[in-house]
Every structure is written in structure tokens, then in C-alpha cells.
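=== How it folds ===
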Amino acid sequence: MKQTKSRGFTLIEVLIVVVIISLLSALALSSYGNYIRKARRADAKADLLELAQLIERNYTESNSFAVDAAGNAYALEYTTSPQSGRVFYNLQFAAGQPTATTYTIRAVPAGSQQKDVSCMTLGLTHTGAKSVSGSGTVAECW
């Protein structure tokens, strides 16, 4: 009787490959999540800058940040980012804002964007000063 060599993989070899694939996929998913949060943050920053331009345009017409040209209390043109679909940031005036001469608008994270603990709430004032409420710096988040 002739013995044939069996060819294939041992259980240890298969387990090592599974562990390596698991580690690589965990790293990839973590990085992917960070890039998604950064992209959503970029959308919110663009929305804040656009709203600031609209507020400034209103100021040239009414000479006040607090009221529009018709004399009504000024309200933001839109209050979510993105403006359609799932909401990742709520856009709003800070408490007590706007006044006749100042405003501060904020992008407050919502839903899965609340995992962005380094930047959290983004802020923009009438002077163009930028702020963050998370553990990151303005330079990192803006």
C-alpha cells in the first residue's frame, strides 16, 4: 500500500491568517471611521462659513445682526448639516445671540458624529474667531 502525502494547511496556519486579517481589518475600519468624521466636520465648517456670509449680507441690509431688513428677528437660513439626509450637525446661534453688533454660530454634533470627541462643537463669531469644545485645538479642527 502506497502512502500519499496530504497537502493543505494546518489548523495553526489557518488561525494565524485569521488573526492577521482580523487585525488589519480592525485598523482599516478605525481609520475609515476617522476619515468619515473629518469629512462630515469639513461639511459643517463649510456650512458655518456660508451662514456667516449670509449673516454679514443681512447686516449690510439692516445694519444689525439681530434683525432682518423687514425688522423681524434674524433666523438662520438652515439649521442642519448636511441640509438634507441624515443630520450630523445642528447649526444654531449661541445662547443670547445674535445681538445688534455680534453673533456666534455653532455646529453641534448629532448622531454618530458625537463620537468626534476631539472637535465636538465648532464655533464661529462675527470677527471670524473660530472655536472648538472638544479636546483638540482650533488648528487641528478648523
Q: What stands out?
A: The mean pLDDT is 93. The longest strand covers residues 104-109. The chain has one domain: 41-141.
